[in-house]
Amino acid sequence: RAERDALADEVLATAAGVGVLEELFRDDAVREILVLNAAQVIARKADSWLPTNARFAVPAHLTAYLARLAEVGTPVSADPPAAGGFDVRLPTGFRAVAVVPPDVLQLPPMLLLVRGPAAA
Hints:
The protein is built from three helices and seven strands; from the N terminus they run ααβββαββββ.
């Protein structure tokens, strides 16, 4: 039941456009968020990187989340996005930089989110 409730919460959050990182976006102490893979998300508060409880249920949810960020974000550069990722500013006040390795490498995508106008 707990897993079902957690999945329902994730589906509702994603449908509302906020996703599994919403709690981190709302925490003013969080300066950066690094998504290393679907099951590993860390956040920087002050000068320390800390593990978080944020998780994507499966790798495909992370991939879908990245596609959503690319759609809702405002590109930082007027140049067309690179084939292996994107760099956008989000309505949350974060800048999102994603790296999506080629399938042949069999590596998960990575996402760095930086609060404010500073370069990622």
